[in-house]
Amino acid sequence: MNRTEILEQEKELLGTEQSPYKGQRGGYRAGAGRKKGSRDQVSIKSLLDALDVQTGGRDYEELLVEDFLSARNEGDKVTTLKYHTLILNKVMNTLAKIEVTDSAEAVATKQLAFAEALSKLTGINQQINPEEDDAE
């Protein structure tokens, strides 16, 4: 038997008890599965649209806050902890700011230290005078 004959015989046996692909736990079935190019049945857009319909157009953030407060009021510590983790990981990153302010003296000290380190690396000796820079 050549390869073409074997493939034709297998096609005839598909879906029958003698099919070489039919195991005890299912296996290959002709026409099974999603068609090529088909999309997922559940998409994010369809989920958000369904949520919008079910909640009467309320924002998702409002629902999260409501569910968080509900879990907290009911004493559900596990769910409350999950909400705290969500809030700390996602929300606080966008709110956290670090503000650094230096005095003029601190800037001058850093400038001098940088110039000294640079002159040691390059072998070029430059005189930095912060007062002259301020006068210009």
Task: Describe the protein in words.
It is built from 6 helices and 2 strands; from the N terminus they run αββααααα. Among the domains are: 58-99; 104-130. Helix 3 (60-73) packs across helix 4. The N and C termini lie far apart (95 Å). It has a two-stranded antiparallel sheet. The protein is mainly alpha-helical and 136 residues long. The protein is flat, with a radius of gyration of 35 Å. A hairpin with a 2-residue loop joins strand 1 and strand 2 (26-27). The chain has helices spanning 3-13, 44-54, 60-73, 77-95, 104-122, 130-135, and strands at residues 22-23, 26-27.
Count the helices. How many? 6
Helix proportion: 55-70%
Strand order of the largest sheet: 1-2
Strand content bin: under 5%
What labels would you give this structure?
136 residues, mainly alpha, two-stranded antiparallel ribbon, 2 strands
Which helices and strands occur, and which strands form pairs?
Blueprint: H1 3-13, E1 22-23, E2 26-27, H2 44-54, H3 60-73, H4 77-95, H5 104-122, H6 130-135
Antiparallel strand pairs: 1-2
Helix pairs in contact: 3-4
